[in-house]
Amino acid sequence: MTSLRLCLGAGLISATATAQPYPQWEPGFGGEIALMASYDERMDESTPQTPKPPPSAPRHPKDTARSPKDDNKKSKTKVIPFGMLTYTFAQGDQQLYFGTSRSDLALGRFHAELGYVRQLNDGSRVSFGYVPGLLSKEVDRDPFAGKGIKSKTDSTVEAVRLKYKQILGSALSLELAAGKQQIEDEQSGQQLDDTATQAALIREGDILFSQLSYLKPLGQNQRLRTALSYSRLDAQGDAVASHNYGAESSLVHQFQRASLALTLKYRFSDYDSIHPVYQQRRKDQRWGGFLAYEYREPFGWKRWSLVTLAGYNDTQSNIQFYDEQRLLISAGARYTL
């Protein structure tokens, strides 16, 4: 906590002159709706050759006893609706909202949120939100199940979120969140027939997240956003509980009728205890990039925008079982209410 306060204090001194106050909202109802078609491709190493690893299961971090990579390549397409509904009070400086914001989509964050935001006289914004876990992520019920018997389930995160943008009128912003990760019908390690191992692999647990970001104008039409983050997954299983340290940088360019945002991310995850299957403490590194493009009023259509999103993540672990590459491409249209 002390180091966070020092960072805030040092940053405020250099950032105050660069912040631009937010414009007031128009009172009443507003928002936007979007329909996106997406393609999601994942290649991982998480398919053992046998339903139950034998006593001589691979222990070395880069063991090659895996099914072929082509067998571990999975892809799917789907159509996803996104949107944001807002209500602004008569003064124009307070707003209720529900949905997924443009800024979250541009950074590759996909979740629905219900909340309240207020603009302060110093040009900053403070918001309090609740993420009800409406948008789920598909995961394996038991990642260690053998090929042919592996099945999918849903993972959701329910959380509360505080955002303080342009702190005291500066270019610094702070985000804090706390919540719970839940996995429907969690069965991690059920194929291993060992209760101690199963307990160490339970992925459900509490999540804490914090991020400090800095927004720097690079000219009339460009902005650079850099951020440092720390998160804690206090999972019930010690082998999957982790401390996570991240850094990201986003470059946003505004054209006359379009905007382009490129985000590069890095995250290091350090896990709490020895993995019961691979007999070593897991450490992951994830590199990623995310590109968002929006073209406003195509063909002269008022209130319409065309949107394209593309993202790629590459996770490298000292335990090859957790190596993963993931590609996401989506395109669609947005209508402003």
UniProtKB/TrEMBL annotation:
UniProt feature, compositional bias: Basic and acidic residues: 60-74
Keyword Signal: yes
Highest taxon of source: Bacteria
KW Signal (keyword) present: yes
Swiss-Prot/TrEMBL keywords: Signal
Sequence segments annotated as region (Disordered): 41-76
Secretion signal span: 1-19
Protein name: DUF2860 domain-containing protein
